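Two folds, back to back.
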Amino acid sequence: QVQLVESGGGLVQAGGSLRLSCAASARTFSTYVMGWFRQAPGKEREFVAAISWSGGSTYYADSVKGRFAISRDNAKNTVYLQMNSLKPEDTAVYYCAARRGVVAGTETSDFGSWGQGTQVTVSS
């Protein structure tokens, strides 16, 4: 398993931006598909974005497409989530997740390692 630590959450006004980071412990980080999920109070954890091991393929939930961008730096063992044009409905705890292999996933059950989460709050 890989250890994941998120950072970069906070409070932002609607229309603003935040960049989340997720640092991974694995020396084989480049062999993992990485993803971001979020969970709002009273709701189930939902898929936000995922990126292939090489960074060549990215996947997004329809609700964030065009506003969020996932990227990775394999030399730094870090994956990022750039969030622009934030809306109050983006308020949630955001989790970083890792999946061994080359096939990307969008379900929580597809990912075996999780971070502790970072809170993002968007005020109206």
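---
second:
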Amino acid sequence: QVQLVESGGGLVQAGGSLRLSCAASGRTFVTYAMAWFRQAPGKEREFVARINWSRGATYYADSVKGRFTISRDNTKNTVFLQMNSLKPEDTAVYYCAAGGATVMFASSNVYNYWGQGTQVTVSS
């Protein structure tokens, strides 16, 4: 099993920044990549960003490109999501996920492990 614990959410004004962290523990060697998803009230969970553990290749949703940066610290089994220029539409619960190698990386179905989520609220 792999356990994921997110932290760093909170309330911020539009234009501000937040940094989310996701600490992985357990059988982390079975995972190939980590990702961030988010879910706003009344909406489906959507892909935000993904990073591969080994080479660090990254992928982003169009809605966050240029504003969000995903990174990792392999020594600490931790993934980060730096969020800049936040907008009210970024308000959501942000989830960390771990999964294998796949071209369908934007689909939540391909991730086996999930964190409990952390709330991000951006006020206008």
